[in-house]
Amino acid sequence: MSYDDNELGRLRVEIDTLDRQLLELIAARFQVSRQIGSLKRMLDLPVRDPGREAQQIQSMRERADKEGVSPDLAERILQLIIDQVVSEHQHA
Length: 92
What we know:
With about 90 residues, the protein is mainly α. About 85% of the residues lie in helices and about 0% in strands.
């Protein structure tokens, strides 16, 4: 194996590690979101909070831009998560 192959393999292992960490963070986020859903049901609050969602999206776009990540990509990812959370809350 050449130097380039070794470097490619090392970088791929790093990507795999980061992907696992992303999934762990998403799982942790959903655990907290489920707790919020339970609390909202107990308090008879609506599932959606458009103001909070807009605030989250704007904050994520700003952070993404500072990190050199496409704000549009960050928004799409967050919107997918929000949509899944709302779906779970509506069917709980």
